[in-house]
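Researcher: Next sequence.
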Amino acid sequence: MKILKEGCPSQDGFHMPAEYEPHKGTILIWPKRPGSWIYGAKKAREAFADVICATAESETVYLLVEAGELDDAWARDVGPTFVVNGQGQVRGIDWCFNAWGGICDGLYADWEKDDKVASSFCRKTGYDLYDAHPFVLEGGAIHTDGEGTILVTESCLLSKGRNPELSKEKIGQKLKDYLGAEKIIWIPYGIYNDETNGHIDNV
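Model: Next structure:
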């Protein structure tokens, strides 16, 4: 596993595939954080177990369960974003994660463990990794058709708790560079008060 600090996926011929394209497996994180999962996460864990069993019938399930290495259970947001090229190679992207808004409006005060999930997963599974730090992004904040178009919401990507030092144009260029996109569709808002500043995946 190599950590790629220079260059970017688009320059290397990589792009983010659509979610409905064939894939090897699904990453899940076992729920435990009291602030997110009440009553010891008992009912949540029952639901997760059902999802795991159903998913495992057709693909690999990667279940992260180390209590000391995780803050919360949102694998889509803290895990790597994978990109592919025409030769079938797969690489990960490690965005900076700050609990959906950092000290401005994040959901919890310490997100250091969650921010390490993407790099840890790629290291343990052998995928080369692009280090996109300090650019803040979550997996649920981006959606693609796999053919060069990325959908995002302004309420999320332009929020004060993510990349306030970057303009809309510069954020859009980051998405093009890392996701191999040609066009960014900016939707003004996601679902109001969804705790993520309006993730596109909720839309």
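Model: The mean pLDDT is 94. Strands lie at 3-4, 25-29, 60-64, 81-84, 90-96, 129-136, 143-144, 149-153, 183-187.
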